[in-house]
Amino acid sequence: MIGKSDDQTGFFGDFLYDQVLPQDFYLRKLRDLVSADRINEACRNLYSDVGRPGWEPALLFRMLLLQTLHE
């Protein structure tokens, strides 16, 4: 079962990210290039239908990508 990520935008709102990250920051551009829906759909058959929901595949991919970029 694929879990869903909670980005907590309801509490902080998008204005927080606009204040902290410049508009031309590379992570903003990278997020636009990586399609979360496409990654989740490609991995859907790898997850079981029973049990506790796992981490969202797109979130895991983004974490690995950031780790690779910042080594």
Could you characterize the architecture of this molecule?
With 71 residues, the chain is mainly alpha-helical. 55% of the residues lie in helices and 0% in strands. The protein has helices at residues 9-12, 15-20, 26-33, 36-43, 57-69. α4 packs across α5. The protein is elongated and about 40 Å long. The termini are far apart. The relative contact order is 0.22. The mean pLDDT is 80.
Features:
single chain, 71 residues, mainly alpha, 5 helices, 0% strand
Percent helix range: 40-55%
Strand percent estimate: under 5%
Note the total helix count. Answer: 5
Number of strands: 0
What oligomeric state best describes the polypeptide chains here?
single chain
The overall pLDDT average reads: 80
Estimate the global geometry from the Cα principal axes.
Answer: elongated
Poorly predicted regions = none
Radius of gyration: 14 Å
Short description:
With 71 residues, the chain is mainly alpha-helical. The chain has helices spanning 9-12, 15-20, 26-33, 36-43, 57-69. Helix content is 55%, strand content 0%.
Topology, please?
Blueprint: H1 9-12, H2 15-20, H3 26-33, H4 36-43, H5 57-69
Helix pairs in contact: 4-5
